[in-house]
Give the backbone structure.
Amino acid sequence: SYVVTQPSSVSVAPGQTANITCERNNIGRKSVHWYQQKPGQAPVLVVYDDSDRPSGIPERFSASNSGNTATLTISRVEAGDEADYYCQVWDSSSDHVYVFGSGTKVTVL
Amino acid sequence: QVQLQESGPGLVKSSETLSLTCTVSGGSTTSYQWTWIRQPPGKGLEWIGHMYYSGSTYYSPSLKSRVTMSLDTSKNQISLEVKSLTVADTAVYFCARAAYSGYVEFWGRGTLVIVSS
């Protein structure tokens, strides 16, 4: 299946925790990657290979992947975290297809 | 630091062919995956395809019949052609470098392409 489902929006107060889910049958068998995109900008990789952070990404960004759900967690949310977040998997076993989730708009209240 | 810069026409007509070029600086195109991704205004990210230095190329099933990617290592450039354009192809087109395990490490700033009817 090439469909990956994310909630369209998540709202969170500053200092609280935001959880963004990414669902697909047996997604736990694939590596999941997460991107942050602010308006008018290119996406930025915030998590790769399920739970690794690129250099420069705060420890407040963490992620997990198991079963049918991958989750990006943003702890101690700040106003600057307001953005769209996309999960992505790569199906290297068949058509080498990249699949992006539909995206989640995170709003900081 | 690897940098990517897309270039091409900002406006094309329906039924015509779009040609975009991505120039890579700060790194070589003789390794990694080279990827094109697009984003229609106000919508999500859509993978178009990617290719390797070896020439192996993979395209989105929904675009496969209309898309061609190529790599010119002498110029450090990646090219994209999309033929038989429709207004639905209006989008910001990003070129990107991906790691072999399938995540995008570096993105271009993107170029907006508007297809007029």
Notes: DSSP finds no helices and eleven strands in chain B. Chain B touches chain A through 21 residues (CB under 8 Å).
